[in-house]
Structures are given as C-alpha cells and as structure tokens.
Amino acid sequence: MEDEKIRIVTRDNKVVTLKNLFEEKERLRKKQSNLSFEKKIRALIVLQRIAHSWGEEKDLMVWKL
C-alpha cells in the first residue's frame, strides 16, 4: 500500500497521511536537537515524574536539580 493512501487518526481526531506523520516527526526531531543540554535534562526529569506517578512504580528514580 502506498504511503499517500494510508490515513491515521490522531488523538484529536485529525486525519493525516503516513507521509505527513513522518515529515512532522522529523521536523520535531530537528527542533528538539537544537535544545540546550539543560532543557533536554529538564524534559527527561518531567518524563521521569510522569513515569513514576503513572506506573506507580516506587523503585523509579526521579532526578533532582
């Protein structure tokens, strides 16, 4: 099946093609690569907090700054 024919429904019920999805993913990846190291670490800490509260796994470590 061709990528242009594949449609994906997002969380907000927006319909995108597979090609558009990968283009947006690449654009976001490039944008994130330009973040400073400090901002990347802060984003990691936010993800650690989400994982800690979501999974209710108490053995997960959340870094402190």
Explain the overall architecture.
- By secondary structure, the protein is mainly alpha-helical.
- It folds into two domains: 1-34; 36-65.
- It is built from two helices and two strands, in the order ββαα.
- The chain has helices at residues 18-33, 37-55, and strands spanning 7-9, 15-17.
- It has a two-stranded antiparallel ribbon.
- The longest helix has 19 residues, at 37-55.
- The chain starts with 6 loop residues before the first strand and ends in a 10-residue tail after the last helix.
- The mean pLDDT is 84.
Task: Indicate the topology.
Blueprint: E1 7-9, E2 15-17, H1 18-33, H2 37-55
Antiparallel strand pairs: 1-2
Throw out a few tags for this protein.
65 residues, mainly alpha, 2 domains, two-stranded antiparallel ribbon, 2 helices, 2 strands, flat
Helicity, as a percent range: 40-55%
Q: Can you give the mean pLDDT?
A: 84
Q: N-to-C SSE series?
A: EEHH
Strands of the widest sheet, in order across it, are 1-2
Distance between the termini: 48 Å
Radius of gyration: 17 Å
Note the overall shape. Answer: flat
Biggest sheet record? 2 strands, antiparallel
Query: How many discrete domains?
Result: 2
Offer a concise description of the structure.
With 65 residues, the protein is mostly helical.
